Amino acid sequence: MWGELKRAAWAEIDLAAIEHNFRALRALAPKSGFLCCVKADSYGHGAVPAARTLLSAGAESLGVATIEEAARLREAGISGPIVLLGATPRANAADILALGLTPVVTTPEDARLLSEASQNAAQNAPLSAPVGIFLALETGMGRLGFLHEEAVLRDIQQVAALPGIHVWAFFSHFATAEEEDQSFALEQIERFDAFCAALRIRGVTAPVRTMANSAAILNFPQAQYELVRPGLALYGLYPAESLRAKIDLRPAMRVRASIVCLRKVPVGFSVSYGRRFTTGRESLIGTLPIGYADGLPRAASGSARALVRGRSVPIVGSVCMDQCMIDVTDVPGVREYDEATLIGEQDGETIALEEIAADSGTISYEAACRFGQRLPKVYLERAE
User: Fold this and answer.
1) 39 assigned to active site
2) What is the pLDDT at residue 2?
3) pTM
4) Active-site residue, 273 included
5) Where would you tag: which of 54, 184, 223, 238 has the fewest CB atoms within 10 A of its CB?
């Protein structure tokens, strides 16, 4: 592995696990289309390989957050529908058309600029179709979208009448779908249904409604509508511990590193910045070439662990930018360039990414994205 990668730390991405997770989610929402989120480089798992896997498994469309993410997919030859889930950048209306994207529209001005760009494009290609848009409806997330107010309903009527665009979907997002207290999420469903009904009364229709993220697919089947938008669960991570009993997900990411330095040190030997760890006995300290720039949070210093030869060992001292240290005193036969697992399974023992997130006081979404930023990725291909 080391000779192949030219680096002694890497992330393994199991594409078969991603496909398994997609199929498990689809079984829970068999009547809905699937818009699979590959934003943030597929939550750190690699957008292009994940996108190809998901489309091959039957996903109808992909979701990204930025123009740049969409462009990378197009450059890789992915030609299927891509929804730009973030606010439409007003300076990039022409780029949205050129890349064949479906944007989320959050203001009348966004829609007007897209309409103008679409009409300009139609002058050069008279047979070009109108741009489909996702109309963002605010139901309680407090982030983006049109408010359910009389004046705003009139604005939306004007948006729907603009030339060169058509409303393809009514779109909203849950704020608390993963929480055990379901009261606010149920309120959001009621608001969404009422908003869609008010628009239909005013002649604004859409063939698709979409609201359900990973947690909502599991908790609120009544909110699956015509299209669901899974993200985290596709990569084998649970939005909440309470959801584990509802679906069998397989983690798709494993993080490993080789011990590049192994030293026997005396009692009272301090390790790393700030001298936050000092040996209480003669110890064997190993150095791993992975640090917070690779996704291992500095906040996990003193609580995170690794697996070496199937044994759990503590990460000791402060996590550095590019390295961390482990205490392998109690691991029989340990050697330099033995493989350490920071996320994943080794000889029957497992460290879940959710554990790293908890150790650093964050959520698994953020932890997965961090590990995907700099580490080289090795893809374990799906069985044909």
Assistant:
1) yes
2) 44
3) 0.94
4) yes
5) 184
- Measuring CA to CA, which residue among 188, 190, 238 is closest to residue 215? 238
Extract the tokens encoding 251: 């983690």
pLDDT band at 128; cut points 50, 70, 90: low
Catalytic residue among 6, 31, 39, 377, which?
39
**In this structure, what token pair is assigned to residue 286?**
């190993």
| pLDDT per position as a tens digit, 343-367 | 999 999 999 999 999 988 999 999 9
**Which is the catalytic residue, given 43, 225, 238, 273?**
273
Joined tokens for residue 17: 């696990």
Which residue, among 100, 104, 94, 91, has the nearest Cα to 37 in the 3D structure? 104
Tens digits of residue pLDDT in 148-202: 999 999 999 999 999 999 999 999 999 999 999 999 999 999 999 999 999 999 9
Give the pair of three-digit tokens for residue 141: 């997330």
**φ/ψ bin of 95: left (φ > 0), alpha (ψ from -120 to 50), beta (otherwise):** alpha
- Give the E-state strand segments of 174-319 in sequence order: 208-210, 227-228, 253-258, 261-265, 270-271, 277-278, 283-288, 305-308, 311-316
Identity of residue 114: L
Cα separation of 286 and 334, whole Å? 9
Is 124 exposed, middle or buried (CB count within 10 Å of its CB: 0-12, 13-18, 19+)? exposed
